[in-house]
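Dear Dr. H.,

I hope your travels went smoothly. While you were away I took the liberty of generating a structure for the chain from your last submission, since the lab meeting agenda had it listed for discussion. I wanted you to have the full record in hand beforehand rather than looking at slides cold. The sequence, exactly as received, is reproduced here:
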Amino acid sequence: MSTETADGDGDAGAESTVVVTPSAAEQALELMRQEGMDTDISGLRLFVQQGGCAGLSYGMRFDTEPEDDDAVVERHGLRVFVDPASEDYIGGSTLDYEDGLQAAGFHVENPNVVSECGCGESFRT
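The corresponding predicted structure, in token form, is as follows:
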């Protein structure tokens, strides 16, 4: 298991697995606390799965601890777990939380994407 930590602005270097914005970390930590999870051990799992009209889609869930082969990224107090297969697709991505008039939710800005479906729910690298 590899662990990468950063304080402040969340940048630990160009080789970063995932960058997490302060708003995404704050929202995820609040949701975890509401679920009664220990935020010192638990984290947000970010993964890629087959699906959607473009072939791949993002998935997120809370996990109580990382798997042995996960990359573990700590940003703004949030631990993010990424499995090796997903890391190939989402390395260098930014996880953000947007709260707007039309929608609120987590959004992944992925520099590896070459095309997305019309609804923005799936992608291809």
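Two observations you may find useful: The CA atoms of residues 30 and 36 lie 10 Å apart. Residues 2-9+16-124 form a domain with the Hypothetical Protein Aq_1857; Chain: A; fold (CATH 2.60.300.12).

With kind regards,
E. W.
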